[in-house]
Design brief:
By secondary structure, this protein is α/β, with parallel strands linked by helices. The protein contains nine helices and eight strands. Strands 2-3-1-4-8 form a five-stranded parallel β-sheet, with helices on both faces. A three-stranded antiparallel β-sheet has the order 6-5-7. Its EC number is 2.7.4.3.
Length: 213
């Protein structure tokens, strides 16, 4: 079974990916893992990616696409299938993935799309606060410190502040929407309601994947 998993930041994609991999025994392929493996194995593309990263530059699409194709061509994928997580990030990468899969003779079986109202994700992502003295992490709504806590004793990381979260969500929505529509036109997208208990989300995913097998 060959799958993509998609969802905005905070949608619980990582948690659900781990559950899918555990139950269905597919290879979990994330871009971070692929880059680390290619660099560690000193492949030509891995070394090229490292040269960009060492210079503080973004790795160009053609290098990222090449590393993905390299990974998808490995023997374990033929035996287990894969769950691709964090790629494609742009519609151009989606087209490159289509071409790579066609060349490798691999078909995509489904795209799991975890959906949550962006306003709820905004609340979820921008509520994190950190205790200045201990570094302990809390959430204003879901895991607040003791009642009547002093806000001055806590701080927020820059990327957790509401304006930063809003920008990140906006960018992700604009990038992911064309990708989802691309795969929807192929009849591959399965929308999953993400605003429910983790186990309930997974029960929906499990039902979809059991029907794909």
């Amino acid at each position: 079974m060959n799958l993509l998993i998609m969802g905005l930041p905070g949608a619980g994609k990582g948690t659900q990916a781990a559950k899918i991999v555990e139950q269905f025994k597919v290879a979990h392929i994330s871009t971070g893992d692929m880059f680390r493996a290619a660099i560690a194995n000193q492949t030509e593309l891995g070394l090229l990616a490292k040269s960009y990263m060492d210079g503080g530059n973004l790795v160009p699409d053609e290098v990222t696409n090449g590393i993905v194709k390299e990974r998808l061509g490995q023997e374990d994928i033929k035996a287990t299938g894969f769950l691709l997580d964090g790629y494609p990030r742009t519609i151009e990468q989606a087209h490159a993935l289509d071409a790579a899969l066609a060349e490798l003779g691999i078909s995509l079986d489904g795209v799991i799309n975890i959906e949550i109202d962006p306003a709820k994700l905004q609340e979820r992502l921008s509520g994190r606060i950190i205790h200045k003295a201990t570094g302990e992490t809390f959430h204003k709504v879901f895991n607040p410190p003791a009642e009547g806590y002093n806000e001055e004793d806590y701080y927020q990381r820059e990327d957790d502040k509401p304006e930063s979260v809003a920008r990140r969500l906006e960018v992700n929505i604009s990038q992911s929407q064309p990708i989802i529509e691309h795969y929807r036109s192929k009849g591959l997208v399965h929308d999953i309601e993400g605003d429910q208990d983790i186990e309930e989300v997974y029960a929906e995913i499990e039902k979809v994947l059991s029907n794909l097998k």
